[in-house]
Amino acid sequence: VIYCDIKEQIHLSLGANVNEMVITWATLCRSESAYVQYGNESFNGVVTGISSKFVDGGRQKRKIYIHRVILRNLMEAKQYHYTCINDEYASEKYSFTTLKDGSNWSPRFAIIGDLGLVNALSLPLIAKEVSENRYDIIFHDGDLAYDLHSKNAKVGDAFLRLIEPVAAYVPYMTAPGNHEEKYNFSNYDNRFTMIDGKTGSKNNHFYSFNIGPAHIISFSTEFYYFTNYGSHQIRSQYEWLKNDLREANLPRNREKRPWIITFGHRPMYCSNEKTECREMNNLVRKGIKQIDKFNTWLYGIEDLFFEYGVDVSFWAHLHSYERLWPVYNHQVYNGSFNAPYTNPRAPVHIITGYAVRHFKSFHSNHKRYLQGNDESSYKFIQNPLPWSAMRVSDYGYTRMTIVNKTDLVIDQVSATKGKVFDEIRIVKNFHGPYKKIIN
Fold first, then answer.
1. Quick check: 241 and 304 in contact, CB under 8 A?
2. Residue 379: pLDDT band by 50, 70, 90 thresholds?
3. Radius of gyration of the chain from Cα atoms?
4. 40 exposed, middle or buried (CB, 10 Å; 0-12, 13-18, 19+)?
5. Cis omega before residue 141 (within 30°)?
6. Which whole-number Å values give the CA distances from 373 to 22, 40, 144, 281, 382, in the listed order?
7. What average pLDDT does the structure give for the chain?
8. For residue 359, pLDDT beyond 60
9. Boundaries of each Calcineurin-like phosphoesterase domain copy (predicted)?
10. How many CB atoms lie within 10 A of CB 242?
11. Which residue from 9, 371, 384, 438 lies 20 to 30 Å from 41 (Cα-Cα)?
12. Is the confidence at residue 428, as pLDDT, over 80?
């Protein structure tokens, strides 16, 4: 009998509410049992997990065994310790703190995009801040590992080991990027566990959850670009997104959680060369043009976000940082000349896709894996467009604090200097559809 004595790639994600936490981990051999022991002080709680065999689509058809446990009926704002166990062999001991309930508190996010293995300059800084209890959520806005499937999914294994000092302690939430596409997103779908806060079901491509005074939405921009897997998911996601936004805008819901914040990988706007977001009518922003006499566009995201008053949209993909003025349909809708982010009249877009450049090689467990994809960063066009407020090519990540129902602070941190180089405070005395504000 071969026992799985090494538990690895341990990472957390949110459950359906603040009283739940999901723990996902992997073993490289099959085990007879998988469970988590946990508790506040003593490890007196035991929850049995669900195990599944994942077969990577690469030539070797490597088998990875994924284990999931949902801890339920947790107390809010409490620290819990836990260990993952397979076949009586336990992992190291880890801990997490559950979220506070209600809307009268200030959630803190670290936001990264396009993070791989080598030259991951942002990760040590974030890990240090996690150890200092600085964050409630880590959000990875697509393009993980470069790539999860590479080298028969050994790159994915190494990446999840790399983020464990962060992801085993703070919920590590994700959105899919274009680099997750291989084998119909199978590595991404199998390795992560994103739970929709309303249905309680797993959906790594689009889901939403509530935290403090905010409603958070994660969705896939990749459905628009990888229609070889079918186009029905564009409509399915769009209808889900519309219904989710409609419910978030019910008076009782918008009053309790006025901030609506979205995460998607490919931006609607950017001022980078040779990329789809430079196109006036790109797929994410405008949707799919119909062949009819009315030139109808279907499933465009921008009109939906404007109609339902999305406050902030985060993007990645471009390996650069760009902050936009409040913008809709390529027009700037600042709150005022002197205070553009006070009562803005359109969503604020932030592109934070430069946690790391792609890499050529890395070392893991004394073996050398070569990475064939070395995609360079996208250069900025020479003259910024009117809606571009700031743009920087540098390694870094974003901090976001949702201070209260009216104030939200976004900091951009340089990973090379370890300092904040851009900061804005968005102040909104009214949250809701922008048509009411403009009209």
1. yes
2. confident
3. 21
4. middle
5. no
6. 32, 44, 13, 28, 27
7. 92
8. no
9. 108-321
10. 14
11. 9
12. yes
DSSP E strand boundaries for 108-258: 108-112, 115-116, 137-141, 144-145, 172-175, 207-211, 214-218
Domain boundaries, the chain: 1-101, 102-438
How is 257-268 classified by DSSP, letter by letter? --EEEEE-SS-S
Position 412 pLDDT exceeds 70: yes
CATH top-level class for 102-438? alpha beta
* Global pTM value: 0.94
Pairing between β-strand 94-97 and β-strand 214-218 as defined by DSSP bridges: unpaired
Contact present, 188 and 11 (Cβ < 8 Å): no
Mean pLDDT for 426-438 is 90
Q: What tokens does 87 get? A: 């076949």
Listed residue (270, 266, 250) closest to 258, CA to CA: 250
Residues 183-237: tens digit of each pLDDT? 999 999 999 999 999 999 999 999 999 999 999 999 999 999 999 999 999 999 9
Q: What is the pLDDT of residues 157-172, one digit of tens each?
A: 999 999 999 999 999 9
Both structure tokens of 391 = 């743009």
Token pair belonging to 184: 């119909």
Backbone angles phi, psi at 234, to 5 degrees: -65, -50
Specify which residues 207 forms β-bridges with: 218
d(Cα 123, Cα 117) in Å, to the nearest integer?
10
Q: Which candidate, 278, 279, 282, places its Cα nearest to that of 224?
A: 282
Contact between residue 433 and residue 249 where contact means Cβ atoms under 8 Å apart: yes
Which two tokens mark 7?
């538990």
Q: Can you give the pLDDT at residue 3?
A: 59
